[in-house]
Amino acid sequence: MSDGTIESHLEEARRFPPSPAFAAQANAGDPAVYAAAEADPEAWWADQARQLDWMEPWTQVLDWRPPHARWFVGGRLNVSANCLDRHLAGPRRNKAAIIFEGEPGDRRTLTYHELWREVNRAAGALKQLGVGKGDRVTIYLPMVPEAVISMLACARIGAIHSVVFGGFSATSLRERIQDSGSKAVITADGGWRRGAMVPLKQAVDEALAEGVCPTVTAVLVVRRLGALLSVAMDDGRDAWWHEALAEAPRLCPPEPMDAEDGLFILYTSGSTGKPKGVYHTSGGYLTQAQATMRLVFDLKDDDVYWCTADVGWVTGHSYVVYGPLSAGATVLIYEGAPDWPERDRFWELIETHGVSIFYTAPTAIRSFMKWGDQHPAGRDLSSLRLLGSVGEPINPEAWMWYHRQIGGGRCPIVDTWWQTETGAIMVSPLPGLTTTHPGSAGRPFPGIAVDVVDETGAAVPPGEGGLLAIRRPWPAMLRTLWGNDERYRQVYWSKFAAQGLYFAGDGARRDADGNLWLLGRVDDIMLVAGHNISTMEVESALVEHEAVAEAAVIGRAHDVKGQAIAAFVTLKEGRSPSGELIAALRRHVGERLGPICRPDDILFSAELPKTRSGKIMRRLLRDIAEGRALGDVTTLADPSVVAGLKDRYEQHEG
Length: 654
Ligand code: ATP
Ligand code: MG
Description:
Layout: H1 20-25, H2 32-39, H3 41-49, E1 60-65, E2 68-73, E3 76-77, H4 79-88, E4 96-101, E5 107-111, H5 112-128, E6 136-140, H6 145-157, E7 160-163, H7 170-180, E8 184-188, E9 191-193, E10 196-198, H8 200-208, E11 218-222, E12 238-240, H9 241-247, E13 257-258, E14 262-267, E15 277-281, H10 283-296, E16 304-307, H11 314-326, E17 330-334, H12 345-353, E18 357-360, H13 362-371, H14 374-377, E19 386-389, H15 396-406, E20 413-415, E21 450-453, E22 465-470, E23 480-481, H16 485-493, E24 502-510, E25 516-521, E26 526-528, E27 531-533, H17 535-544, E28 548-558, E29 562-571, H18 579-593, E30 601-604, H19 618-625, H20 639-653
Parallel strand pairs: 4-17, 6-7, 6-8, 7-14, 8-11, 11-12, 16-17, 16-18, 18-19, 19-20, 29-30
Antiparallel strand pairs: 1-2, 3-13, 4-5, 9-10, 14-15, 15-23, 21-22, 22-24, 24-25, 26-27, 28-29
The structure holds adenosine-5'-triphosphate and magnesium ion.
Adenosine-5'-triphosphate binds near residues 271, 275, 417 and 441.
């Protein structure tokens, strides 16, 4: 990149003001919150923290010794008690906390009281296995209630959990167990995915084989598949979850934790390289998770809330478990794939369970668009009242489709920008207050200060693209990278050390109204004949074309221009590739964004390389386009996709 400013070519004039009916009932009703929070951010966050139950009050809201922050200094609380015990005294006691549906269609509901009972037993069982405060526990489970129970059980006794997505291989699991130094692993015999059994316990056995993870002394195994899949049990190390819980005491009191005691380690998605072990603590994290839950998702007591993220991702931590349960929500959990047994499974779930708030990712939305409108159209989605998006920039056309086909034109959409590192939502519309624009994540959440700057850290004017930076510490921020504080300083705080800004690694533009438009990852920004061009804008222009479902755009080395634009395009069902279509797409992008943005190469591909969390991995497409060996592929959802693309690209070039 040159000076760090990014040109912006995408014009988006559509606006969606909140409906008066929604605004009248919204949790965020007063636009003055922004100014009030800005005038005294610490007082604002302290107000949010007072929504939680504290065992000991804090003496200082923030102690900031850059780049290390301590929030709610001296305060003590227990995160599981905030998610469970405090709801038992009132009308939420017998309210559904979790509605679970397995992929085969099995169902289970746990009330807050029932969830509390299970968590007490699980916490007691962990203690009996010798797990205590500060010890790490790796959780490697399908999306079943036991995943939530395990996380809350760790929080109850002060153990630090590290959830590893159940789709990761034994090798990735082993690396994460070793890096975190876990004492115990919680897994299942297996889970269901697209009608097949995923043998999780077998992967744990492989990960732990030959003593390569000497810290692990116990493995708890949930029986999900039972007689369908027999697993080997190591007498000295392994125990069945149901037996251990039955033997554990009925009650396990919540451990009083310092606000800054560890809650979890979570490894990032790995879009840009080797995953980082992001470390989060208790009081500040929960404060921001529950505040955003109430204000961004407008949560009410009669909502049925569904966030489709797996607990293996940060979204599954903050918006399946800690945010919603601390706010007393009814949370739907679904184990399996969106296209099993049919491509309308999600819409069937919404219809059956009366889901009112739905939070998913652009990658999923683009798949639904590709599969066709008939799937949502065949189901009753009238229970929905709010939609959310997270994980990547949402292309304006995907936003419009989501708005019309899923939201029936009546549901506000919250496009939420945040990261594993930020712990909770940082930029988002507040439904009821914000006029939304397809493709914009809106304004920073009250109390959060975001700057758009150039390479030197100087603010760029509205309308120009630059680098997203965060100006002051926020409660849910990561505290360090596990075991590697040096890397923490270097990755996030060294780029703008002089200004004391956090470097997020994403490009963004702010418009004249103060709305932020995310432009993609800084590493992916293209430099074409002296112009910095955003991948997101070219992809969005391609997705606008009626034949296109999804696009990934990269800059590849070019002798004259520095970089040339290459686009990998997935077509909608029923559309076929042709030379005419390539010409039409190039013309469309040129007309929409200007000739400089017109792709040099367009390659059609039925699939794009994605992380297991569904994000497009452009760095591997660059490796392919520039004829290099592929970088780290361990976090890829399906390695055969890049291998196939590499072959085809080379044939097409040669
Ligand atoms: P790694 O850091 O290992 O490369 P990752 O950045 O993909 O992995 P996550 O923390 O899961 O890991 O993702 C955060 C990133 O996702 C953000 O930095 C941003 O690039 C992208 N992102 C998330 N939500 C949005 C959004 N609403 N709009 C635009 N981008 C988003
Ligand atoms: Mg990242």
